[in-house]
Design brief:
19 helices, transmembrane helix, 500 residues, Glucos_trans_II, transmembrane, single chain, membrane, Glucosyl transferase GtrII
Length: 500
């Protein structure tokens, strides 16, 4: 029997504020300029966000920096968006549970603690905007007006706002609609009311997409997100991307947390079966119950498809962790079902949800250390290169250098080898776009005369002036070429040396 009093709205907000700021601390501590951050901080963004249909992200940075350029003011945007996210999660918790206690709050935490969302939070510029997109969607879900028209208007605008910040967050809205549908089954509401609410969500989704298309989408020039998979290979590509997605999801389970994952999925499956019985107890006709039952069965495949979302059918071939933002909806679904099953087995058992939450926090902090390792190695590489360029007399008369990066993405990180070995998903979070050294890092070290180059520009007959472990430097006339090498050395410090 439950003898604990529920928390009020203020207490719920404080809980989420504290927990959310604890969760994002590793990113503030690392302070790592991740991929796009390196060139945005040099004010090279121009209209990049606008050209991708994310014009509100551009507007957001202009407002926060009081300028028309991408000045780096990290971590202020992250603090603001995290506070907004905490408020949004508190609203969603109260939407699901009128008198919540801490275990109920844990059900909603995966919105922020989605492991794949670590890839989004890695970006100092884009990450806060992605958080605010989720905030807009949550407010769209939780907005409650007396008239359906007002609910539709507000939700439509909020969905368009979310799309104008980060388009892929729409899968989170779909996932939360599925969770809301399951919550209606849990509460044994009338089938007509559950179906009506779902229908309203569909109309809101359509309205938001149309509004976005008529506004921010009109600025799109970068068409890498267009639906361009056509022809006989379409089915093969979609299946291949889906299998790739499921493979990456499976990496979340390791030898250390395998039992936790198994227990969470088992209790969720039990909760799913328990709630299915509620369908036939609904005060409705058989036809309505049958429709609800069919949709209830369809919730799981919908949530699975929401993980890659639109990435299944767009031209962009790369699937990075940040693209799987829709996994949050599936996690909330799993946590809700586990919460229900554990509660029926024994109220105090709901506190066991703390264990998978701690797993997500542990993964976040481990990834934070990986970012620190990446930052340290990148800094070392930059200093090696800066020393060679500034101390070698052969480069004294060089007017400029062409920087040629490695042919493949490199996440060679000896310091993080142990963590990545035991949690391979950490390497995936880094993305293949995260190379050993980016040209945009060099201005920090006073090397301001390097520009991007291509291997085709380099004369094969040239002999390197500097031939180091990580790069070669060539000279021809008043030009120089910095060529990064492919790293083939082992990351494992404990591996025996190849000699006695």
């Amino acid at each position: 029997m439950n003898h604990e009093a529920g928390m009020d709205a203020r207490q719920v907000q404080v809980f989420f504020l504290v927990v959310s700021f604890i969760y994002i601390y590793p990113f503030v501590h690392a302070d790592y300029a991740y991929i796009d951050d390196s060139w945005r901080s040099l004010l090279l963004a121009d209209d990049a966000w606008r050209n991708q249909g994310r014009i509100l992200l551009e507007f957001l940075h202009r407002v926060l920096t009081f300028s028309s350029v991408t000045v780096n003011i990290f971590p202020l945007p992250l603090f603001i968006s995290t506070a907004a996210m905490a408020w949004a999660m508190s609203r969603l918790t109260l939407h699901y549970f009128p008198q919540p206690q801490i275990p109920a709050c844990l059900v909603v935490l995966p919105l922020l603690c989605n492991p794949f969302f670590l890839g989004n939070l890695s970006y100092q510029y884009d990450g806060p905007g992605m958080l605010l997109a989720l905030v807009a969607l949550v407010y769209g879900i939780t907005f409650n007006a007396q008239t359906a028209l007002m609910r539709w208007l507000v939700a439509t605008v909020l969905i368009a706002i979310a799309l104008s910040l980060y388009q892929l967050t729409i899968t989170v809205f779909i996932g939360l609609c599925a969770v809301e549908f399951v919550a209606g089954v849990k509460e044994v509401r009338q089938a007509k009311a559950v179906l009506s609410q779902l229908g309203q969500r569909v109309l809101q989704l359509i309205g938001g997409a149309v509004l976005y298309f008529c506004t921010a989408y009109q600025f799109v020039i970068d068409h890498r997100g267009d639906f361009q998979i056509t022809g006989p290979e379409r089915q093969h590509i979609v299946i291949e991307k889906m299998l790739f997605t499921l493979d990456k999801v499976s990496l979340l389970s390791t030898a250390g947390n395998g039992l936790v994952c198994l227990a969470l999925l088992t209790t969720a499956a039990l909760g799913y079966l328990m709630l299915s019985k509620n369908i036939w107890n609904m005060p409705s006709r058989t036809a309505g119950k049958s429709i609800v039952a069919i949709l209830y069965i369809g919730v799981i495949p919908v949530l699975i498809l929401c993980i890659p979302g639109a990435m299944l059918v767009v031209a962009e071939p790369n699937l990075d962790a940040r693209n799987f933002i829709g996994f949050a909806g599936g996690l909330v679904f799993v946590f809700l079902l586990s919460y229900e099953a554990l509660g029926r087995l024994g109220y105090s058992l709901r506190w066991l949800l703390i264990v998978p939450v701690l797993c997500m926090f542990s993964l976040c902090y481990a990834y934070g250390q990986v970012l620190v390792a990446k930052k340290e190695l990148e800094s070392a590489m930059g200093h090696y290169l800066a020393y060679d360029l500034s101390s070698n007399k052969a480069f004294a008369t060089i007017k400029g250098f062409y920087f040629i990066g490695p042919m493949t993405g490199e996440n060679w990180l000896p310091r993080a080898h142990g963590a990545i070995t035991h949690a391979p998903i950490l390497r995936y979070f880094l993305s293949n776009s995260s190379v050993l050294l980016r040209i945009e890092f060099l201005p920090r070290l006073g090397i301001n005369n390097a520009r991007p180059g291509r291997r085709e520009m380099l004369d094969a007959s040239l002999v390197p002036v500097v031939d180091g472990k990580f790069y070669q430097i060539y000279v021809t006339g008043d030009k120089g070429y910095i060529v990064m090498k492919e790293i083939t050395d082992s990351e494992d410090f404990t591996e025996p040396l190849p000699f006695q």
